[in-house]
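call fold target=Pyruvate dehydrogenase (Acetyl-transferring) E1 component subunit alpha
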Amino acid sequence: MSNNTAHEEPELVQLLTPEGVFTEHPDYPLDIDPEDVRGLYRDLVLVRRVDTEAVALQRQGELGLWASLLGQEAAQIGSGRALRPDDMAFPSYREHGVAWCRGIEPRELLGMFRGVTNGGWDPREHGFHLYTIVIGSQALHATGYAMGVQRDGSVGEDGAAVIAYFGDGATSQGDTNEAFNFAAVNNAPVVFFCQNNQWAISEPLERQSRVPLYKRAAGFGFPGVRVDGNDVLACLAVTRAALNGAREGQGPTLIEAFTYRMGAHTTNDDPSRYRVSAELEEWERKDPILRLRAYLEKEGMADEAFFAGVEAESDQLGERVRHECRTMSDPDPLDIFNEVYAEPNVHIDRQRAEFADYLASFEDSGAEGGR
């Protein structure tokens, strides 16, 4: 096999060029009105602001860590807005944009990275599972959930579908490939959404795969498609089609959103050590927010008042994020025992009581020392 194979870039689904020119795609029609397009632009801007503030807060010592989504906003907002209320999403740890689409408040994300929450949010309430740090394991969780949906009979045009998010590095994990196989042989209603941001921390894509990632699906017996991950309209159209196919009994689909991680892998990473600035500059010209703004302006869908209003809302959101992060209270130490099991459990009750006695012993020691 030629060493150039991994560098070949197959045709991808694109509705919006980097210059903001819209072109219809025969396989992925998109019926969307100007109000919804403006809503997507607002989503992109506000999610990027949350991300920017979170990075700054981590640098100021307010967060232990943050995984930035900079550059991947279109992939997340486009796919997130394709979901219906009854659908379930299984994220990794970078899907802040999908969380936004599912009604997760930024403070709930920040609380996790600040270390003041033992979980986060109710997955059932939002149709959005808790963040997963173990690389690729959420693909199995999503497949199992989808098989449960299938066995419950919650399928059909009005039924639920499932989506699993992961990065290009996760495609090298056994869990992800096992999920592909289980989903295929069970015809499970699940969409695998891979955000190929070109780098698995410091490992480039050519060290992960000798073929384009979306072609992995064919080996398991289901379709794969590569979409322009910086085109929010294409991500919306392709994900909507894949989810509808899953609902209608067509089984799984692998979507490879071809995008780029503009920032560091996390705030513990220094990307300048392993990638060149020219690569970053090339992708900056494909910025998903600038692309959609150009489209709105060309088509007369938005004026300067609209853009100024979104910027003002962004500033207000940034101030709120900073305030809410810095004023978060620490959890009660005994909260760690809550919701470990769905029903009361004698072993957990005993451990809670023992830990409560242990904590109380410090108070007693302090009182004795005072005497």
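return ok
The CA atoms of residues 229 and 257 lie 4 Å apart. The longest strand covers residues 190-196.
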